[in-house]
Amino acid sequence: MAESLRYSKTHEWARGEGGEFVVGISDFAVGLLSDLVFIDLPEVGRKVAAGETFGEIESVKAVSELYSPLAGEVVAVNTELPDHLEWLNDDPFGKGWLVRLRVADAADAGELMSAEQYKAHCDAQQH
Amino acid sequence: MSGMLPAKCRLLIEREPAEGSWNMAVDEALLEAVGETELPVLRWYRWREATVSMGYFQKVNELDKRLTGLPVVRRLTGGGALVHEFELTYSLILPARLVATRPTEEFYDLVHRCCAECLVEASFPVEARGTSRAFADESFLCFARGDSHDLICAGSKVLGSAQRRRRGHILQHGGLLLKAAKAAPELKGLRDLAPGRIPEDLDQQVSFRIARELELELVSSSLSARERQLTEELSSTRYRTTDWTVSRRAL
User: Fold this and answer.
1) Rounded-to-integer distance, Cα B161 and Cα B149, Å
2) Which three-class secondary structure state does DSSP give residue A12?
3) Shortest CA distance to B168 belongs to which of B95, B102, B108, B107?
4) What HEC string does B11-60 produce?
5) Where residue B130 falls among pLDDT bands split at 50, 70, 90?
6) Choice between A105 and B240, residue whose per-residue pLDDT is larger
7) Which one of the listed residues B9, B114, B118, B142 is annotated catalytic?
């Protein structure tokens, strides 16, 4: 788990970079998925609300939805990721990033969980 | 199991066959509604005519040529295409609180195990595959693929399932192949593979076992007014549209 990131309850992370936020899914979430086969990401320019579905990922015949942790506009997409799904396992906080968002209000990130809070959230999910 | 968990499971057994678009819309409507009702649902349904259901990420232009004359519907779930003709089809819709009680992939095994127990009692030699089968080029058809969760009979896959996970809730559906579809005769069903007699109430027998494993009480149910309205909307705006079936775009 990366300490400097903010996390959503649905296991997406967000990292502020120069007024924009890079978004991905956590190592915990990737660990719940296995044998990844497809990922669908939004197009650049799409506007998303916080909590809105912006992508989907398939693993072992299960399609899981990906949710935007913040409201904003998609300004970049990791277009190489669909051909390198192993990056999600190997480097979920780096090469496995999903999209870059220009957010409506950067202060919204404060409502996401800290790494410590997110760890407690994951621990609760593991009973 | 915690006393906070839902104690009942709705059982919907639909004897009247329906169009593929309606069947898929019902499953999604139940997934949408389960967040509100918090009640798990077990549904059994039939198909009005032989119909192909494609996995969510599959491409129409890769459709097996033999199947092009059949109605096609895109599922919300992953995996390969099914030809629903001589089949017992189920869906299991689980609220997040129940999903959290075990790893999500275990729900495949739960349903398959309950189905296997009933079929073994009816003298069908079915078992879980247990290991994954590797393919150089994965077949378009689900029953020509193989993974560890499959139920097999005399070496042939007879039950496969797939899931959609949405906000912690799960829709899982799958088909038990009773007999080979005319358009895919190489994929044998139970009646082609073994001499046993399939119990007429197999759907109920399997349901009771699933409910017992989940420690739930089965209650006979039907679609609520809200679920029916959602189904009608999803059927007309999604599952009956070319945008969805061909391009995977919802309106």
Assistant:
1) 8
2) strand
3) B95
4) EEECCCCECHHHHHHHHHHHHHHHHHHCCCEEEEECECCCEEEECCCCCH
5) confident
6) B240
7) B142
pTM given for the model = 0.92
pLDDT bucket at B136, cuts 50 / 70 / 90? very low
What domains lie within chain B, and their CATH numbers? 8-247 (3.30.930.10)
* pLDDT at site B250: 61
Higher pLDDT, B39 or A124: B39
Q: What is the DSSP letter of A106?
A: G
Query: Which residues 138-177 of B are in CB contact (within 8 Å) with A?
Result: 147, 149, 160-168
Sequence ranges of the domains in chain A: 6-125
Q: Measured between CB atoms, which of A38, A62, A127 is closest to B165?
A: A62
Per-residue pLDDT tens over the stretch A43-87: 999 999 999 999 999 997 899 999 999 999 999 999 999 999 999
Q: B2: alpha, beta or left, given left = phi > 0 and alpha = psi -120 to 50?
A: beta
Torsion angles phi and psi, residue B83, rounded to 5: -105, 110
Closest partner residue to B56 (CB to CB) among A10, A63, A127 is: A63
Q: Is B142 a catalytic residue?
A: yes
pLDDT confidence of residue A2: 66
Q: Classify A6-125 by CATH class.
A: mainly beta
Residue B212 φ then ψ, to 5°: -65, -40
Number of CB pairs, chain A paired with chain B, less than 8 A apart: 54
